Amino acid sequence: MKQYDIGKIKTIALLGHGSSGKTTLAEAMLFSAGKTDRIGKTADGTTVMDFDAEEKRRKVSISSSMAFTEWRNRKINIFDTPGLFDFEGGKSEAMRACETVIVVFSAGKGIDVGAEKALSAAGKMNKSKFIAVTKCDGDERDFYKTLDALKVRYGTAVCPVVIPYMAGGKVDCYVNFLQNKAFKYVDGKATECAIPDDARINEIHAAFTEAVATADDDLMMKFFDGEEFTHDEIVAGLSKGVNDGTVVPVYACSGYTTDAVDLLLNGITKLAPAPQGEGDVACDENGSLAAICFKTVADPFIGKMSFFKVVSGKITPDTAPYNPRTEQVEKMGKLVFVKGGKQEDTTEISAGDIGVVTKLSGFKTGDTMCSQKSPVTLEPVDFPVP
C-alpha cells in the first residue's frame, strides 16, 4: 500500500438507521474500486465489514469496522457503523476518526430516527455531510419520496447531485449534475447516454444550480446574470458548501447492483474535505507526532490492536510512543492497515491517515500518542452516556 499525501486522503463514515444498507454500500464501494473480487452479502455472512462471528450470526453490524480503497489517485478510508442503538459506541469511534459522514437512506422511506440522529450528530461535531439514498433498484422504491422528505426537513441545504430517471416504475438511468451527464447501468457497468428531457429533472437541476451559487458570492452574481457555471466552478462551489456545512449533496445509487456507486466515489474524491488539524495542532506530516487512539480491539490471533488517527507527524517502527496520560514511553508494536478482519503491513501511518499499532499495553481508547519532547493531548472519543 503506497503512502498518500494529506490532500489525497478521504475518510468517511457510513451512518444511518438499522437495515438502511450501510454495509452493502460499503461492499459496493470496495468492489467498484477493485478492492474485492465479489460483493459480499449480509444475509450470507460474506461481507468484508461484518467479519465478526456474532455479526454473521445476527446478520447485522454490532461494531464499527473499516477498510480502505483507492479511487482516482485518492485513498478512501471507509467506516461501516452499527445502525442499532444498542451499539452506538461504534458510531462514536468512526465519527472521531472521519472528516465526512455519509448518512444512508433506503429509497422510498422517510427520515427515520437513526438517520436524523446521525445528521444531528454530524452537525454538532462539524463533520461534512453527504446523503446516499440506496436501494433505488428495488421494486416500489421511490427515490423522490425520500428526497421530498429531506427537503421538507432540511430545506435548501439538501442538494441532489445524482438522481434516477424512472421509466415504467424502474430506474432507466442516473443523471449526474456534477458532470452534467447521464449513465445507464448494465451489470454494474456504466454507459453514457443523453440526459432525458424531463420536467422533474429540469426542476431539480435548477435547484442544484442555485445550491452551488449560494456557496460563493461570485457564483451567485453569475447565477443572477443567467450565466452557465463551468465544471470547475461547480466543484469549487459545492466543495466550499460541503466543507462549511451549508450544502449536503444527495447521491442516488444501488448497493446490491453497484449502479451509480462509481458516481458516489467520484463525488467523495472531489467534494469531501481532506484531513484537518485539531485545535492548535496542524495536520502536517512533518510536524511533531500527535495521534488519537479511537478504538481498541483484542484480536485472538494478533493480540491488542490500537486504532489511531494521526493528526500530525507520522508513526513509524522507530517511533517512541509516549502516552501523556500515563507519562510512559512504550515499545512500538507492528504497524498495519486493516480491511475488515484482515491486515496489511505498512512502514508508516502518516498525518491524515488511519492505521493500527499492535501490542501497546499501556494505551487505551481516548489516549493520545505523541512525542515526549512535545506532549499534547487530543480530544477523546465522545461516547454516549448509557
Give the oligomer, counting copies of the same chain as homo and different chains as hetero: single chain
Flag low-confidence runs. Answer: none
**Sheet/helix structural class:** alpha+beta
Name the beta content range.
25-35%
What is the terminal separation in angstroms?
39 Å
Major sheet strand order: 2-3-1-4-5-10-6-7-8-9
Q: Averaged pLDDT, please?
A: 95
> In DSSP terms, counting alpha (H) and pi (I) runs of 4 or more, how many helices?
9
The best one-word shape is globular
Helix content: 25-40%
Give the ordered list of helices and strands.
Answer: EHHEEHEHEHEEEEHHHEHEEEEEEEEEE
Biggest sheet overview: 10 strands, mixed
Cα Rg: 21 Å
Strand elements, count = 20
Describe the model.
There is one protein chain. The protein has helices at 22-32, 53-58, 89-97, 113-124, 143-154, 199-214, 217-224, 231-244, 261-271, and strands spanning 9-15, 65-71, 74-80, 100-106, 128-134, 158-167, 170-176, 181-186, 189-193, 248-252, 290-299, 303-312, 314-315, 322-323, 328-329, 335-339, 342-345, 349-350, 354-358, 368-370. By secondary structure, the protein is α+β, with helices and mostly antiparallel strands. The chain has a ten-stranded mixed sheet, sandwiched between helices. Strands 17-16-19-12-11-20 form a six-stranded antiparallel sheet. Strands 13-18 form a two-stranded antiparallel sheet. Strand 6 and strand 7 form a beta hairpin. The longest helix has 16 residues, at 199-214. It is globular, with a radius of gyration of 21 Å. The model has no long low-confidence stretch (mean pLDDT 95).
